[in-house]
């Protein structure tokens, strides 16, 4: 009887142990499932937030586009005003030179007139009639009369002409000074307007930068959560198998700590690497090769700006899986952007991803593209020569770095500009 009781007690303890183990395994399985559901909800929430953030990013990018186009137009007007001011200055200088010459001539004429008046004074009260009557020869008297008449008339015409010219030069001088002052006033007004637009651009750039960072952070969090979800799903499956009646000996491979190691090992490197110069350029295009076909310029072209090439054709674009279709040349803001060869401008406007973009058609199916400009200084339809200034360097399009994006294309297909260029 005592033996039977012992067996009964043993069976009871065994049953309790089995029940306890099963309950523990079930609880362990339930907690990860709850966590998994929470992660699902978090991913869904972040995805919705990411969509809203993208919409806000697009709105801010559109506002940035309008600001950059306005800044480009203001800079183009400033460029034209500078050219007009230069012409007015040259005209003013020429007028001042002409005025100075006329003043010297008039001074000489005044000196001659003074001498003539002195000679007339020395002759006393002699007049033309007395001089003529003193002549014994009538023909000589006639010649004297004509001479005096000619000298007097010529002197009067010369003086009147000089006075008229001086008056005209003075008037033109005043008009030019007024026009020059007007140009200066307009330039000051445009600079003030550009300052306001630059402020707007900086404000919009900060918005785009902030939203871009937010989108990047949300994407990274979603990717991280997806990796965590996968690892957690694997853990749930392992715990579910462990809860089955058949006992399994735990292995190193099935331990959660290995999952943590695996997740850590697969974590992508998202650190931004600083851009390094791949090449440096100090020479600029000229019109030395104008007149020939663009194809004949292979190996003779100069890059359109001074600066450092930080991205080359065919290089991978970070975190996109794409490659560069042209060059990015890091350069100081405001530097001149030159046309690499003669041609006609077929596009000059703002484009998403490229900012203020200008495209030159060189004929024969060849085109050159210049993006991220601060200002477009030429208009669509303009004819340009090699070395002409067509834009100024900037960071339009939302770039963090000031510089020029430069492409060459043949029948719409991009090719390596470096293979056609000479760096000095």
Describe this protein's structure.
The structure is a single chain. Helices cover 57% and strands 15% of the residues. By secondary structure, the chain is an alpha+beta fold. It folds into 2 domains: 1-270, Helix Hairpins (Orthogonal Bundle), CATH 1.10.287; 279-420, Glucose Permease (Domain IIA), CATH 2.70.70.10. Strands 1, 2, 3, 4, 5, 6, 7, 8, 9, 10 and 11 form an 11-stranded antiparallel β-sheet that branches. A hairpin with a 3-residue loop joins strand 5 (343-351) and strand 6 (355-363). Helix 1 packs antiparallel against helix 3 (138-242), helix 2 packs across helix 3 (138-242) and helix 3 packs antiparallel against helix 4 (256-265). The longest helix has 121 residues, at 2-122. The chain is elongated and about 155 Å long. The protein starts with a helix and ends in a 9-residue tail after the last strand. Residues 1-26 and 250-274 have low confidence and may be disordered.
